[in-house]
Amino acid sequence: MDNTGIRILGAVLVVISCSGMGFFMAGQWGERLKTMEHLRKMIFLLKGEIVYARSALPESFDRTGKKGGGEIGDLFVRVAERMEGQRGEPFYDIWQEEIDKLPKAFCLSKEDRQSLKGLGEHLGYLDLEMQERTILLYLEQLDLSIGYLREHKQERSRLYTSLGIMGGIFITIMMY
Fold it and tell me: 40: burial class by Cβ within 10 Å (0-12, 13-18, 19+)?
């Protein structure tokens, strides 16, 4: 292969890799939306367990986690297991540690994780009415985030894919 062929192959690879990065970023936006919607469902299930079934917190988290499934369901089950296994450790500490253990590939932003940690601040030691209010407040915040993600999904997907493709072309032109 001559020098021109290698340069063309390099240019094509640069454009393809930059385009792939743009498509990846667009996919991450969609995955974050799905994760937030699943989290919302799980929090509603948790609210039902706490408020209507009047289950203890470890039992509520265990049932919710098993019903919901997925990575968030696993989070809830791990929290329940730790609450039952380690008496005396505050719920908030367990909750924070388990959220911190979520993989970085898990599609929640830093703000989403902080908000989720904040939910655990008032669960477990307040009366039933205050726990319900805490959950409802978190659900309102979650609804706002989901609304924002839905509203901007299409434009962000287009933006990321276009920037990926155009960035690849720009880099290729700059290389020549």
Answer: middle
CB atoms closer than 10 angstroms to residue 155 = 10
Q: What is the pLDDT of residue 105?
A: 66
Segment 49-58 long-range contacts (CB within 8 Å, at least 24 positions apart)? 50/123, 50/128, 50/131, 50/132, 50/135, 51/128, 51/131, 51/132, 51/135, 54/128, 57/83, 57/91, 57/123, 57/124, 58/83, 58/84
In degrees to the nearest 10, what's the CA dihedral of 144, 149, 150, 155? 140
AA identity, residue 96: Q
User: Burial level of 22, CB count in 10 A (0-12/13-18/19+)?
Assistant: buried
pLDDT above 80: residue 25:
yes
Report the C-alpha gap between 163 and 154 in whole angstroms: 14
Q: How far apart are CA 146 and CA 36, in angstroms?
A: 6
- Measured CA to CA, the distance from residue 101 to residue 103 in angstroms comes to 6
Q: What is the mean pLDDT of the chain?
A: 88
| Class of residue 115 by CB neighbours under 10 A (exposed 0-12, middle 13-18, buried 19+) | middle
